[in-house]
Structure prediction request, 112 residues.
Amino acid sequence: MAELDVIQISKQIEAKITLLEHGRSELRGKAKDRATSISEYDRCLAIAIIKHKDSGKYPATLIEKIAKGDCFKERAAAELAEAEYKLTVTKMNAIQAELNGFQSIYRHLDIH
Prediction:
């Protein structure tokens, strides 16, 4: 019976390691998407602020708020990218916790 347990636990450990390897690739992509969306938002905001300052239509105290409203789609994309990045990190942490659990079980199995 112990041999069967050892094999099953070993397979689970291997599966979790594979998931973590895939997760690293996914995390790299999410980090790139996050950085890109943040930079797009910052660029949009800067352009909108300059545009509104140059127009002279609005008081200086309102320009940033108006510019943020102009860039709401870019802000939403940046928020979504941030949430997806954090979700991926959380998923990887959960997989790591599962892996740690299986490794603990493996260490305490009676394999003699």
